[in-house]
Amino acid sequence: MSAPQTPPAGARTIGILGAGRVGTAVARQALKAGYEVRIATSQPAEEIALLVEIMAPGAAAATAAEASGSDIVVLAVPLHKYLALQPALLAGRTVIDAMNYWAPTDGELEVFEAAGRTSSEIIQAHLSGSDVVKTLNHIGYRAIEEDGRDRGADTRRALALAGADDDAKALVAGFLDRLGYDAVDAGPLAAGRAFQPGTEIFNASHSAERLQTILAADREPARS
Amino acid sequence: MELGAYSFGDTQRNADGSLRSTAEAISNLFEAIVLADRAGLDYFGVGEHHTLEMPASSPGTVIAAAAAATKQIKLGSGASIISTDDPVRVFQQFATADAISGGGRVEITAGRGSSVETFPLFGYDLKDYDVLYAEKLDLLLALNNSGTGNITWSGTVRPELNSLAVVPRPVNALPIWLATGGSAPSSVRAGQLGLPVSYGIIGGAPARFAPLADLYRRSAAQAGHAGENIKVSVAALGLIAPTKKEALERFYPGWYRLNVEMGKLRGWPAPDRRQFLAQADAPGAYYVGDPDEVAERIVDLHGHMGHMRHFLQMDIGGLPQEHLLESLTLLASEVKPRVQRLLAKQ
Fold first, then answer.
1. What range defines the domain where residue B89 resides?
2. Domain with A77 in it: what CATH number?
3. Which domain holds residue A174?
4. Among A8, A107, B215, B257, whose CB has the most other CB atoms within 10 angstroms?
């Protein structure tokens, strides 16, 4: 068995809110990359101890407060439960919004149906003290563990990210790189529209170059 | 190992691709269940979906009819969307079918469903998704476990029952399974409740579900549940034909059509044939092949998950009925003896 990789510069601890398919897949991939991982749900930590031991060996079953104290916190709960996320716990944190609004599974939720804002902008408004970065929403939970490649590999998949704060985005870009993906900055949070469900980027695998091309084409109409 | 099939109903297509009638789809489904029974399959699961393409919306009705027309096959729902139904009605329908079957052949599989079409259809609010499921499951279990049939229950999502009779009583308590697409918390829930669990595996390597089955069993043990109710079944996509080539050719058009429709709904990219072919070979999720291959792959998964029942959804996207019937026949006559032989060798 190989020794764990040394923790990367930048983020060292990853908190994950949600222990479903996405949450546990991100946890396993982050553990492989050498991060310290804490998983929390709405249940007490001891209630999910067995789940974490089996589904993400090496991660810690944590309270929401403990997981929220991590360098990066990944939101992986069903979107319709977003109001249960506690803004005070996440204030000052870099938060990855890996969630999507899918009416066929979430049902039509008024706040997300209203035109104008992307789902991540609504999450950012709820978590007003946090730096929300939208990414990991446009890769399937199975692919998270299957598609990662070392830096410089020929066929490395890229993931887009969007957010207001450059430092937070740099931190998240470093995390994506360690997970095995090139990170492509799409711009402010509203630019995440280009990789929501129903777009060319959503759930399809692209290289960094191709992703940049698609994102540039997407910005074009706004300029004219 | 029990082998079987499940179906949401599969509306046939005309040569120009347009949909034929949903009534025909239900009558085809009935014909398939009767054939599966005569061929010697162990299980058939029905519904619940509510779309023009997949119209098996009333599992209890189909199962009652099938109970009268079959002799040995077990019949269940796959799954009953209890969140948006009345557990009293679901229980009565299945207990009635159980009586018609002679007793002991009818099961309920309770699930949330992978889509939410039943919420507007029956006037429920998606905001109540979790509480509806938790409370209605609780009531369904209370109905089933009651010795006398006099039920007292109260909750927030339906009027209380104050020592009311719920009849007929099943010959024995109905097996009630929990269906899940493979989330860890659902596996824990099934284990803690001491219910058998049914995993729907529709993509990726099925062996990935091994830790979930382990989590389920250990959660059950931790909660003090043991015995024959702690068991795992696997529902997956698949089709058997005399040769692998024929199986692929028969299954692909319906698979493609279904994925185009799902993609439109959920924002997925268009499906492609390479994806399909990758999933249709080991270690992929589609049990599409000749009897030898399908038998070997079922036995291989058994080594990972220890499941006691493996059942396949064969009819999707307008699969011609004769291909469904041939696949069911091959599953019973060719795959089943091979699976038994391979398992006996271990």
1. 2-345
2. 3.40.50.720
3. 13-223
4. B215
Question: How far is B56 from chain A, CA to nearest CA, in Å?
Answer: 19
Cβ distance B266 to A204 less than 8 Å, yes or no, reads: no
Q: Which of B204, B229, B235, B205 is nearest to B216 (CA)?
A: B229
Distance CA B12, CA B21 (A): 7
Interface test with B, best of A28, A54, A108, A110 (most B CBs within 10 A): A54
Asked whether residue A6 is assigned to any structural domain, the reply reads: no
Give ipTM to 2 decimals: 0.85
Rounded mean pLDDT, A209-221: 89
Task: Report the CATH number at residue B17.
Answer: 3.20.20.30
Name residues whose C-beta falls within 8 Å of residue A23's C-beta, 6 or more positions apart in sequence: A16, A17, A39, A74, A76, A77
Residue B267 has pLDDT above 80, yes or no: no
In a domain, A3, yes or no: no
Share of chain B above pLDDT 70, in %: 99
- Distance from C-alpha of A62 to C-alpha of A46, rounded to nearest angstrom: 8
For range B176-188, the mean pLDDT: 94
Do the domain assignments include residue A7?
no
* Total number of domains constituting chain A: 1
Query: pTM score, two decimals?
Result: 0.91
Based on the structure, what is the number of domains in chain B?
A: 1
Tokens describing residue B345: 């060798």
Among B67, B58, B125, B76, CA closest to B233: B76
List the structure tokens of A204.
């399809």
Contacting B with CB below 8 Å, chain A residues are: 19-21, 24, 41, 48, 50-51, 54-55, 80, 102, 104-109, 142, 196-200, 202-204
- Whole-number average pLDDT of chain B: 95
Taking the CA of residue B180 and the nearest CA in chain A, the distance in Å comes to 12
- Say whether pLDDT at B114 is over 80: no
Confidence (pLDDT) at B130? 85
Instruction: Answer yes or no: do A104 and B265 touch at CB < 8 A.
Output: yes
